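User: NFX1-type zinc finger-containing protein 1. Structure?
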Amino acid sequence: MAAEEPPNVIVITEPPRRFSAGLAGLVALGIAALAGLGGFLRQRASASVTIHSEPVVYTQRGSASGTIHSEPAVDPQRTPASVTSPSEPAVYTYRVVRRFQHDPNAFTQGLLWSNGSLFESTGLYGESTLRELQLGSNGEVHVVRQLPLDRRDFGEGLVQKRGQLLQLLWRTGEGIRYYVQAGEHEQLRQAGRFRTPLNDGWGIEFDGENLVVTVSVTDNGKLIEMINELEMIGDELWGNIYGKDCLARIDKTSGSVTGWLVLDGILDRRSAAAEAKAARRRGPDVLNGIAWDPDGKRIFVTGKLWPAMFEIQLEPAREITLERARRMCIPTRNIFRLR
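Assistant: Predicted structure:
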């Protein structure tokens, strides 16, 4: 498969019906760190995309079946930005609360929680889908409904925005809009396409005002590249780093990393690879997929072609120093950038 190269900085803002990928969007979001703009804004400063929004009514539903846990050991919405000094990120590890099944053939590109269901965007040509999942009490996952994409489309990032789902596509400058009502007897259907100024899809998130594709993220002044799947948790933007078993907690105003969540070892890759080989299917790929259930205060993570999805709680990383976390989480180079 051809490698995807992520855009370094794109913030799409929305006046009533129009999204702008220009510098005004960055100012509107308040992103101060502008390193790594590259040629995108020079080439695309005037690019815009119009999405004609129509109201969609969501059916209010309770949380998915199973035990709802109280606040995590470290509450991601309340934890101070740093445990060392105001300018240094905190470091966290994790505890697995529950392991869920995950389709090992799902090339996960986007994951989100809405009204008691998980919604997942999957990629690869001829295999891309949008699916609604509900979680069982014993780790099982029920696919409530699934829509295949056209064989020419490669599904990418997924976001919920004011009653609709928006799914980006890879290398087409397009996305798909969906009407959705979560639940067994509800619906999920395509509602047309929209144009974007994006050459690649990657992750996307909605912060209540802006559609955020990739912000310019820094740690101690160092640009962090290959930010992939995005999730808003409280007022923070969380993102996984492509190829690393790590999540970055990001201040969406400054673009600074406020915390590193080290997920090293969350998937037994050797065992998963052996199972995949025995089943004659592809082995597990990179970590990709973050979802936040704000009512249950639950965080879910998974990866491309992973056989499992995990509900996790944050724990203070007493045995991982900040410097070690940086070595584990920060790429030494952008593997997608032409040299």
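Residues 1-72, 80-85 have pLDDT under 50 and may be disordered. The radius of gyration is 19 Å.
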